[in-house]
Amino acid sequence: MKIKKILVSQPEPSSSKSPYFDLAEKNNVKIDFRPFIQVEGVSSKEFRQTRIQILDHTAVIFTSRTAIDHFFRICQETRVTVPDTMKYFCISEATAFYLQKYIVYRKRKIFFGKGTFANLVDILKKHLDENYLIPLSHIHKQEIPELLTAAKVKYTKAILYKTVSSDLSDLKDVNYDILVFFSPSGVKSLLKNFPEFEQNNTRIASFGPTTAKAVKDSGLRLDIQAPNPQAPSMTMALDQYIKKANKK
Q1: 5-36+167-245 and 40-163: same fold?
Q2: Can you give the pTM of this predicted structure?
Q3: pLDDT of the residue at 27
């Protein structure tokens, strides 16, 4: 069957230069965007019940912009004034720059890795005297605590936000030729919203090995997997698949 409509389970790109828009125009297909998951902040009451004291820590580890937002939100809600001496360790330079939203960047001690948590841990090993706080979602990669513990880093895990399924009930009677997923949570959201979902001719695309595994573990057929040697990005993998499907 030819591909005419695609649903990407992420927010619509803010830039008009997104490769998804090029993909749609180039292949004459319609692409809709809809987040299958959403982030909800843990309330200040819930956080207080953990008895975690932010000011007992000398440094914070940030794995994402979302973690930064919720750390400073909780500080505000619990009336904690973060001292100028607090150090920040970020997974990437882009994440580190996002701190400018909350602090005077040039006046703080900020360190950043090259995009992987393993690389960031190598930096943390040079600062083992610090007592770290790491804000996370209730669903997070198990490698994070494992790598920190193995490196003998003193840390406290603070669950400050949750990833939950979005309400997709308005999509019940809408059919797409391809559903595109980027996380196991997205796959879980599909099946939570539509427990009677039957794949039939709907193609499923996934990005990353954990998402691919979630698709297969759910008993669904995985038709498009990225990255792969011929397609390092999801848009490239979709482009290649659409060209073959629409030739028939």
Answers
A1: yes
A2: 0.77
A3: 95
